[in-house]
Amino acid sequence: MTLPEEDTNTPRAPRGLESSSPSVRLRTAMRIGTTPDPRFVDELVERCAIEPDFSVRETLTWALTRHPSSTTVPRLVDELRSERAQARSQALHTLSKIGDRRAWPAVTRALLTDADDEVARSAWRAAVALVPEGEEPGLAGVLATQLGRGGRETRLSLSRALVALGEVAVPVLRGATADPDPRVREHAIATQRLLRDPDAAFGFAIEEAKRVVALGTNGQEE
Length: 222
Fold this sequence. Notes:
Blueprint: H1 5-9, H2 22-34, H3 41-48, H4 54-65, H5 69-79, H6 85-98, H7 109-112, H8 117-130, H9 136-144, H10 152-165, H11 170-176, H12 182-196, H13 202-214
């Protein structure tokens, strides 16, 4: 007897996530997201932790957002305790896309200051997306401890997170302009520039900040 197509295809869908072909994995993730099934949430999350292809990872995240947050959020929060950096990073990225503020307590200081830049960057984005009203100043204070960290992309991610918090970031940035570390001062001054003018180019803001620091000022307007 031939089973209905839905019975033969749906249970087999996750097998495609193990294919050596990125295009097959991507199509499989799209198929799961198009017809969400809670049975596949674990497989999607597990694949996120090891998937090497960016486009496939984004499709896996999209597929997870298509499932009920009551199913996905607890599983993703569990993943934040993984020893694998990519597992933590992708779980945070997906939580930011889902936008369920019940996940906020799981975005801990340890994740916001994670030694892995990709994890930290994902945590910053997730925190800004999930922070409850009234918690913004505390978040800004933690984010400010990371000023001067990493390369251009890491610093840009942090600046964007602080800019997204708005005026609550002003006091911590002002304080950071007096930091003894010139990299912290430069980053703080550049972020102040972006806060005043979000359309400004980050590279230009950094170069301008370097000149300010070299002149021995803190970039504050009179």
